[in-house]
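Final report, Chapter 2: Outcomes

The project's central promise was a pipeline that accepts a single protein chain and returns its three-dimensional structure in a standardized token representation, suitable for archiving and comparison. That pipeline is now operational. To close this chapter, we reproduce one record exactly as it appears in the project archive, with the input sequence first and the structure output second.
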Amino acid sequence: MLRKPLLLVLLLSVVLASSVAAGETKILINHIGYDPAAAKRAVIQGSSEDAWSTFKVIELATGKAALTGSAVSVGPVRKWKDWHFWTIDFSPLTQEGSYLIECSSPRETIRSYPFIVQKNVLERSALSDIIYYFKGQRSSGALDKADRTMKFEGKEGVTIDVHGGWYDATGDYGKHFSHLSYATYFNPQQIPLTAWSLLVSHRELTRRGDPYFKQYLRRLLDEGLYGADFLVRMKNPAGSFYITVSGRGPEKKPEDRLITPKATRHIILTPETKDKLRDYGKTPVTDQASFEAGYREGGGLAIAALALASSLGVGGDFATADYLKAAEDAFAFLKKNNLLYTNDGKENILDDTCALLAASELFRATKTAGYREAADKRAQSLMARLMTSGNSRDYWRADAGDRPFFHPADAGLPVVSLMNYYEIADAAMKDRVRDTVRRSMGFELTMTREVVNPFGYSRQL
């Protein structure tokens, strides 16, 4: 009995989808909204046959135009179908409220979906959901129970408690500090960056003093300390941090989980191997460095997160003194041994960046002069990596030569680490940091504008 109505719905869906795909002109806005003081842009997506020249921003409550202006044709984007784009800048609109954008041409009038202009609109709309997402990714149930007596690959009779932390992804129930160590310049910062980011968000919102976010502060602190507790458990008392708890196998069985060494190469999976327990390119090893994280492999961010956690006056499963001890011990160890934890025996921009974050947070937490000296050295080394070669001015070099730094996840981390260091730097170093960051961001803007880029997507060299 349901077949005919269901078939009708499916046919209507196909007809509607094809009519939309046939070339509907749209005004694309930020659906979250816009902050009153921020830049405000929208994009018209149409065809080369369209002729859009002006726009109105209409206040929903009154139907009146709050702002008028000109739409700027920027043309097509290579390999983006046959679309033609126009940009709309309505940054002068600063009054809070609900609006839509209207554009007219000789052929038609189009309108955007409604949007809001509101102070702290991103935080109001997204922060609660982001915090809740991480809580939903917590290690739990049978897998977390197995992690309380976790074994090492290739080491018989040794178990440790590494419960807690967050699963890596919807398809990966492992818990990682980093991976891709064999690729030298592309280590992503994973669980340690999450813990540090949550705690930094707590620090900055506390500093802001906005009563609207008071309830979020409790949740940020809870989630950040949950991460810090996991980092303490992953600390080897005689070394750095274990780099990964591997959630292996097609069925993700608790008994298949192991603390595994770093992959040394990449393997391409085939239909015959993709659902089997695989070695991820590893060769059997038992040396300490193969199981642990260097600065660029999550060790630096773990130190930063623990140092920050130690300064909050409250602990989770561990005391604040435990957080600080783990951070200081790891920093002292990696200061001497970090080269042993690199795949190529050399430090690069990621080591400078992550060690700078570690030293900066340790100085904030302890006011020990040695940590600021370490931060100064790393900041100087990092800032010296801003270089010019050929037509590219003020880009980050990744190595000791002129290789550009580009990254799939953390391309902005060098600037973030310098801005975090800025607050502990002396006056002369503050001047250098400001100049370096300004030049780096100038390069980013130049790269962004080099091609037709209506949405202003960040590009890398």
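Archive annotation: The CA atoms of residues 116 and 430 lie 37 Å apart.
This record, like all others produced under the grant, will remain available to the consortium after the project formally closes.
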